[in-house]
């Protein structure tokens, strides 16, 4: 089961709650700071597996790539 969203009041991926894609916090310091600022939680310090669900992003926040990597062969197309 994917992790549960860390946003206050969000019940995505909890038992009985709606299912949603989740994203780990970025490792880049500037991006991580921006994500933390967007989550209204006092003294919030995300851990390695802390996630935010897709409901808290705009479609324009995502970058779509057209490459595919075959996990068996390692080739990219």
UniProtKB/TrEMBL annotation:
Belongs to the THAP1 family. SUPFAM superfamilies: Glucocorticoid receptor-like (DNA-binding domain). GO terms for cellular component: nucleoplasm. The keyword Nucleus applies. The keyword Ligase does not apply. Residues 1-77 form the THAP-type domain. Keywords: Cell cycle, Coiled coil, DNA-binding, Metal-binding, Nucleus, Transcription, Transcription regulation, Zinc, Zinc-finger. It is found in: Nucleus, Nucleoplasm. Pfam families: THAP. GO terms for molecular function: sequence-specific DNA binding; zinc ion binding. Gene3D superfamilies: THAP domain. SMART domains: THAP (SM00980). It comes from Haemaphysalis longicornis (Bush tick). InterPro entries: THAP1/10 (IPR026516), THAP_Znf (IPR006612), THAP_Znf_sf (IPR038441). This is THAP-type domain-containing protein.
């Amino acid at each position: 089961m994917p992790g549960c969203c860390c946003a206050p009041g969000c019940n995505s991926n909890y038992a009985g709650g709606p299912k949603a894609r989740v994203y780990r916090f970025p490792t880049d310091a500037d991006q991580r700071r921006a994500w933390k600022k967007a989550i209204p939680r006092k003294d919030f310090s995300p851990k390695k597996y802390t996630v935010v669900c897709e409901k808290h992003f705009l479609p324009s926040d995502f970058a779509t790539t057209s490459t595919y990597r075959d996990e068996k062969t390692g080739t990219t197309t």
